[in-house]
Amino acid sequence: MSEPRTLSRRGALLGAAALSLGAAVAGASAAPVSDPVFAAIATFRAKRAAFNAVIKEQGEYEERCTARGVSFCAPSPEGDEIEERYNAACDADADAWWDFLNTTPTTRAGLLAYLDMLTEKDGYSGGPLADDEAMGAICGAIRGFVMGGDHA
Questions:
Q1: With contact defined as beta carbons under 8 Å apart, do 110 and 68 qualify?
Q2: Cα dihedral angle (135, 136, 138, 141), rounded to 10 degrees?
Q3: pTM of the entire structure?
Q4: How far apart are CA 77 and CA 36, in angstroms?
Q5: Torsions phi, psi of 54, nearest 5?
Q6: Which of 49, 71, 74, 99 has CA 20 to 30 A from 83's CA?
Q7: Domain range for 90
Q8: Inter-CA distances, 17 with 7, 12, 27, 152, Å
Q9: Mean pLDDT, to the nearest integer, of 54-83?
Q10: Does the residue 54 lie in any domain?
Q11: What is the DSSP letter of 128?
């Protein structure tokens, strides 16, 4: 039968160091990344979802009108209300898109999220306002990141 092992001072110090390093790494990975681009992306996605919901509602309204043999362009309180919500949602979507485009990422993760957003279905190639002005905003945001200095 072997004798119980005792913990040496060296072993205790190494164990404590490993625990503190593990806690630091876990804490660092759990810490939220502070980059304004993530909020801009979330806002744009929320505004786009709201806009898509109104577009769907408008399509359903048009189908109901067509089924009744009525032009969906004919004035009606319901049609007017949907058109007002459509215009407001469209404006909010475009504003959120421009806010996103003009947001300079402050971290590498933010820059990657920015670039990923541009390549998504609702991003630059399939999104609103894909023109020279938008490309200028994109380049300005990327340039701002590059010139901004130290990036986490």
A1: no
A2: 180
A3: 0.66
A4: 40
A5: -70, -40
A6: 99
A7: 34-147
A8: 15, 9, 15, 25
A9: 87
A10: yes
A11: T
30 φψ region: left (φ > 0), alpha (ψ -120 to 50), beta (else)? alpha
How far is the CA of 96 from the CAs of 24, 38, 138, in angstroms? 36, 12, 14
- How far is residue 151 CA from its own chain's centroid? 19
| Structural domain contains residue 8 | no
Burial (Cβ within 10 Å: 0-12, 13-18, ≥19) of residue 152: exposed
Instruction: Report DSSP letters for 53-99, one per residue.
Output: HHHHHHHHHHHHHHHTT--TTS--HHHHHHHHHHHHHHHHHHHHHHH
Residue 86 lies in a domain: yes
pLDDT given at position 10: 47
Please check whether residue 1 lies inside any domain of the structure: no
Expressed in angstroms, the distance from the first to the final Cα of the chain is 54
Query: How far is CA 151 from each of CA 33, 112, 145, rounded to the nearest angstrom?
Result: 12, 12, 8
CA distance 27 to 29: 5
Q: For the chain, what is the domain count? A: 1
| pLDDT band at residue 152 using 50, 70 and 90 as cut-offs | low
Interior/surface letters 110-140, b for 16+ CB within 10 angstroms, e for the rest: bbebbeebbeeebbbeebbeeeeebeebbee
pLDDT of residue 105: 92
